Request: fold
Amino acid sequence: MPKKINIPEPEVNLKFIDVHCHLPFPRPKKNDRLPSDEQQYQEFLNNGGIYLITSSIDNHTLELIQNFIKRKEKIGFTCGWAPQTVTYTPKSQYDIEWKKWVEYIQDNQEEYLAIGEIGLDFHHAKTLEKREQQVTELKKIFQLTKELNKPYVLHVRNAAEHEFDRDHPKHLYNKRDGATKEILSIIKEFTVNPKRIMWHCFSGPDEYGILLPKQGYTLSVPSSAYGINKWRRVIKQSPLNALVTETDSYYQHPYLRGPINVPLNVKYSIAAIAYTHNISQLEVSKITVENAIKFFNLEGKI
Ligand SMILES: [Zn+2]
Reply:
């Protein structure tokens, strides 16, 4: 049974943008409790959603998204090469897949809104070798794209204590902010303006909730912040003008476990921010929509 959450439910009549979800996404047929992709899109728009941004992580999801968004007006996408893609693509296919992605990125700039998700995930890469591989590939992405003048969407996940690489116990990547620190140094190395960078599903460490907005970064609050105390604590300190809202669906349900989230639940991000900042949900809805329009340059699409 889900725990009771003592935070007000999202109000009706809110307007919102989901700046990061995965629709469509390959999902196991067995036990699939989700409405169809089409239905999720319609329900989002019929209940206050004004624009939806989906995200590819590799060439396969890019293809799914291209087919899905054809003839749809209120949906755009960010084109990503996720750290998981770096770690899990079989060696024998990697170069071919990578080349294909690079060609797409360079030849179709008007098709996508941003580059991402890209980043570092030290939960999925548990050895130093695998972590270094993610770093190398991420640098290649920045090198290739920094002149395109596109925004970036980052996926950053630090190693938890049980995920330390025991062969290199003292290595920086094992630190609680090892991935965060590394990515900040890469951004500096490639002189990318923080104003062009959004941290998707921002979840800490705590001090970065204050630090990153001060440097000009945008932080995206997931719907699951509604149900996770620690994540709300992190966003509490972040100024509203740095925040946007996302679901990361079908992951990150507001209060249930499992991959069963839908874009409409982005209203729970609004409820979480309103609660932590002690202001009205309507106000949060207005500000986060404005922030998203500005960051992704959506003027004219809404
Ligand atoms: Zn995602």
